[in-house]
User: Fold Amine oxidase domain-containing protein from Archangium gephyra.
Amino acid sequence: MTPPRVAIIGAGLAGLTLARFLTETGFPVKVFDKGRGPAGRMSTRREDGGGTFDHGAQYFTARDPGFQRMVGTWVEQGLVAEWRGRFGSLEHGTVTPQTEGPVRYVGVPGMNAVARRLASGVDLRSGVRVEHVRREADAWALTSESGEALGTFEVVVAAVPAPQAVPLLSGAPELAARAAGVRMEPCWAVMASFDAPVALPLDGVFLHGSPLSWAARDSSKPGRPPGERWVLHASPEFTREHLEEAPEAVAPLLLEAFARAAGVEVRPREARAHRWRYARAEPALTEGALFDERTGLGACGDWCAGSRVEGAFVSAVAVSRRIALMAR
Ligand SMILES: Cc1cc2nc3c(=O)[nH]c(=O)nc-3n(C[C@H](O)[C@H](O)[C@H](O)COP(=O)(O)OP(=O)(O)OC[C@H]3O[C@@H](n4cnc5c(N)ncnc54)[C@H](O)[C@@H]3O)c2cc1C
Assistant:
């Protein structure tokens, strides 16, 4: 039997993991992503001076045995390393160092390293937003937002955040309704470079009672270029309240919140804000993946399995098994 042609919409960790598994087992696979490059929420931004920022996912943990094995391989390949930073919490100026915690992994030299490697072995078209997935005879026809016909496929998987999956799943209304029920919290992120170290005895900080929920000395991660660079993440409450404001207006508010919370001077050389409209599912689904075997339409992503990097991987594995069974 000829294996079905598969289209994957989204080149984040879920979409690329799925693409690699299916490509390696002989499926013809095409991946589409609206971004300039792969990685989605595991992206890394490069600043003019050569520094980098992981402005989305900060680190990841591995509890699932399959993911632990995968992470072990990435470590061997030099794509991932443990971030042995100083972690702790900060509440109204009081620093509490964390003495125990999980092993925290990061991509090397940036969080996007794994996605870049995965993408190198798949047929990926970047810079194209898929707008429609329509039934045509026995297949799904994909069209871009500019009206370009992107091809027909027997299997289509939307590996995008839940709200973006809803219109792509219109051919499977039950799955579209499941996706529509998943709320995803937004997150404002600030990327700031400094000429001198920020006087805080931590590298990864969980903040409480502040407009910020997290701050990281990004330059303390393994394999990063020299310098002093921080990433600040706003709380969901702050982000919702300031969702439609300009990045230039949001950055100073969060830098000031950081200075206040840490009780230190915060004078960056440069700072930019980035809005993640769909950062994390609250809460995520637990079924692993959504897939309709009768029509070959489905979805995967962190929001199907735990709202984290690990969940994106686990979800891709779950949908790949269902596609393999369908094609038998
Ligand atoms: C600010 C922030 C902090 C985070 N911190 C952590 C953390 O510390 N630890 C952790 O484990 N996780 C963290 N996460 C979550 C983690 O980043 C995600 O769980 C994971 O990256 C999701 O991968 P994914 O493949 O499911 O989705 P994504 O990475 O979102 O990939 C989806 C892709 O689909 C593309 N796309 C969307 N719609 C279309 C369309 N119509 N056509 C074409 N392409 C489309 C997008 O461009 C994107 O590349 C964080 C996320 C954010 C935003």
Observations:
- Helices lie at 13-24, 65-76, 113-119, 162-168, 173-180, 236-241, 247-262, 309-327.
- Residues 9-15, 32-35, 40-42, 56-60, 129-130, 159-161, 164, 187, 189, 233, 276, 279-280, 301-302, 307-309, 311-312 surround flavin-adenine dinucleotide (CB under 6 Å).
- The domain at 45-107+184-281 is CATH 3.90.660.10 (Polyamine Oxidase; Chain A, domain 2).
- Residues 45 and 100 are 30 Å apart (CA to CA).
